[in-house]
Amino acid sequence: MSSDQTTTSGADAGNIPRDSPQDSPFRHERTARDEAPQYVLPLVVRIERNEPPGRTDALETAARAVLVMLSDERSLGDGEWAQAMRDWQDARIRKVVRRARGAEWRRAEALPGLTVTGKSAEVRVFPPVPLDGWPKDLARLQVSGTDLDDPEPPGDADPAAPVLWMNPDLDMSAGKSMAQAGHGAQLAWWELSDEDRTAWREAGFPLTVRTAAPARWTELTTSGLPLVRDAGFTEIAPGTTVAVEGYDRVGTLPDHVRRSAD
Length: 262
What we know:
Elements: E1 39-46, H1 55-71, H2 82-90, E2 94-100, H3 102-109, E3 114-117, E4 122-125, E5 129-130, H4 136-139, E6 163-166, H5 174-191, H6 194-202, E7 208-211, H7 214-220, E8 227-230, E9 239-245, H8 255-260
Parallel strand pairs: 1-2, 6-7
Antiparallel strand pairs: 1-4, 1-5, 3-4, 6-9, 8-9
Helix pairs in contact: 1-5
């Protein structure tokens, strides 16, 4: 899997402090944000040799991990991670996914962070660190060599919850795709009111990640939805990777979705 250093475009950052709309973390062009100290949000996916997670589950779990970090009380106000979160969001919104197994995973779990579990995937997310200031036990983890598959085709996206649509024209590693899904989830979070954020969190952050059909992708990327745009530093050329749909539905999540998240 590859490290992800992306910028995004196509959405308003909502409650994220910034000097002006022109100085946005979502702009592809170089802005004042590039002159600020750069931070990265580390994510580690557990991939045991004989029991790797399903690819789609890993993507969805990574997206939820980002949301759990954004909403954790330690990331807010005067919380112990709040300053790092502000510094990270004041610059470019970078995420890097690394892999671990066995003793590596146990060492990662011992560091301050949060573990989110999906159907088969486990992803641990950590408070942001400087680009050149990774903890030793995370810096030594690999960012390449990950091949994840789905044991069976994923079902249809849940129409009652947000959907992160992946670009069908791109061939990204699982790690790269997990980082992009995390970006998409963060865009959805920033679009919401405090009330809707609470509803989504209490429901367990239901969402789905799916690859769009080509015709559907064209429709999504021309409809004014929030879009993640990669800066092209790793794996792929600059361009749009994720379209975020359905974030406006989280405030009215139906009862069956809420119960499934209990």
